Amino acid sequence: MARFPVSKKNIQTYQEDGALCLRGVFGATEVGALQDAVEEELLNPGPYAKEFAQPGEARFVGAIFVSSYNETIREVLINSELGEIAGKLMGARQTRFFFDHLLVKEPGASKSTPWHQDAPYFALEGVDCCGIWIALDTVTPDTGAVEYLKGTHKDGLMYAPRSFAAGKKYGHGLVEVPDIDANRDAYEVATWSMEPGDCSIHHVRTLHGAPGNETNFRRRGLATRWIGDDAVFGLRSGIPDDMTTAFKDLAPDLRPGDGFNHPMFPVVWKQN
């Protein structure tokens, strides 16, 4: 039996709201291992790392596919219950690990994460993709807790992606993200203060963003992605260069329309 069972209410919340929070998914040992691995990445950034802050600003760091070269992160994630949690929330027959995305806002990193969906940034077609954001520090609204707009995953829209650094639009032919901050009362916002080991979970098309970290405390988070039955490899305008480069490096044989039957994307859970 799973240590962290997924309830019918959890599934209903994910399907209706597109976001929820689960407490205490990771224990102290797992959190400590991930924290150590993150510090290693910050000291020696890998090939898919980006600095989103401008020179002279506090660090806001992003790095995708860290688990492709950091064995600790890969081992913790693959052996965790996240694949089962994601699979049950999606209603999938099986779950594959897709990739991870480290996001660190150091104290005083005032740059916000723009409102966005994950789907337009990913080399992915389909909607069976679940994001699970692991808190590695205490997270509050002041340190940059992620905010999710309930129900936006059901709009049927794909929004043009923008750079986290400069706000520059990547994609063409997609709908512009509306000015959410100017009209926040029109949306139902879900956000949670979290402790290390807690997880916020969202659908790949749920609009979300995060404020800057205006405190003297760190905000380290590891976003993980898990894919289900309808997910296939895809390329479109707007996918960032680091994403396309990572796929060329790590899974060069994948072609648009292919399933993710590849060692980089192992099956981690199957429905009984």
Describe the secondary structure blueprint for this structure:
Elements: H1 8-17, E1 19-22, H2 28-43, E2 49-51, E3 60-64, H3 71-78, H4 82-90, E4 94-105, E5 113-116, E6 124-125, E7 129-135, E8 147-149, E9 189-191, E10 199-203, E11 208-210, E12 219-227, E13 232-233, H5 241-250, E14 267-270
Antiparallel strand pairs: 1-10, 2-3, 3-4, 4-12, 4-14, 5-11, 6-13, 7-10, 7-12, 8-9, 8-11
Descriptive report:
With 272 residues, this protein is an alpha+beta fold. It has a single domain (12-246), classed as Sandwich (Jelly Rolls), CATH 2.60.120. It is 19% helix and 24% strand. It contains five helices and 14 strands. It has helices at residues 8-17, 28-43, 71-78, 82-90, 241-250, and strands spanning 19-22, 49-51, 60-64, 94-105, 113-116, 124-125, 129-135, 147-149, 189-191, 199-203, 208-210, 219-227, 232-233, 267-270. Strands 1, 2, 3, 4, 7, 10, 12 and 14 form an eight-stranded antiparallel beta sheet that branches. The chain has a four-stranded antiparallel beta sheet with strand order 5-11-8-9, with no helix packed on it. Strand 2 and strand 3 form a beta hairpin. The chain is globular. The N and C termini lie close together (12 Å).
Keywords:
about 270 residues; alpha+beta; Jelly Rolls; eight-stranded antiparallel sheet; four-stranded antiparallel sheet
Counting DSSP E segments of at least 2 residues, the number of strands comes to: 14
Regions with little confidence, pLDDT below 50 for 5+ residues: none
- Determine the fraction of residues in helical runs and give it as a percent range: 10-25%
Please describe the biggest sheet, giving its number of strands, its sense, and whether it closes into a barrel. 8 strands, antiparallel
In percent, how much strand structure appears in the residues?
15-25%
Give the second-level CATH assignment, the architecture. Sandwich
Q: From the alpha carbons, calculate the radius of gyration and give it in angstroms.
A: 17 Å
Order of helices and strands: HEHEEHHEEEEEEEEEEHE
| CATH class call | Mainly Beta
Looking at CATH, the homologous superfamily is: q2cbj1_9rhob like domain
Question: Number of domains in the coordinates?
Answer: 1
Overall spatial form: globular
The mean pLDDT is 94
Q: What is the helix tally?
A: 5
Main structural class: alpha+beta
Distance between the termini: 12 Å
